[in-house]
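Weekly puzzle thread! Below is a chain. First person to post its structure in token form gets bragging rights.
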Amino acid sequence: MRSTTSERQSLLTDAVEVLLKHLGPQKTIQLWRILIAPQGDYLKTRRKLFSGKSVAALYRGAKKFNLQTSRPARTRTVEGWS
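Winning reply:
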């Protein structure tokens, strides 16, 4: 089976979104380093992953992710922490 560049890009985008959702940013980056390190230059890979996306679009995506995955702040009450 042969895949096109856009299919690969789409697959990578989907995979990163799943990893971010289930592992969070820190563990996703740790895994990314393990997988990418033996294969090549992150800067080249980064260009492929984020090509065509503006800084504003990346920011909006990160902000949306953080809003979806953030936990409510803990507050202290008379009875203790909630």
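Puzzle host: Confirmed. Bonus trivia for everyone else. The first strand starts at residue 76 and ends at 77.
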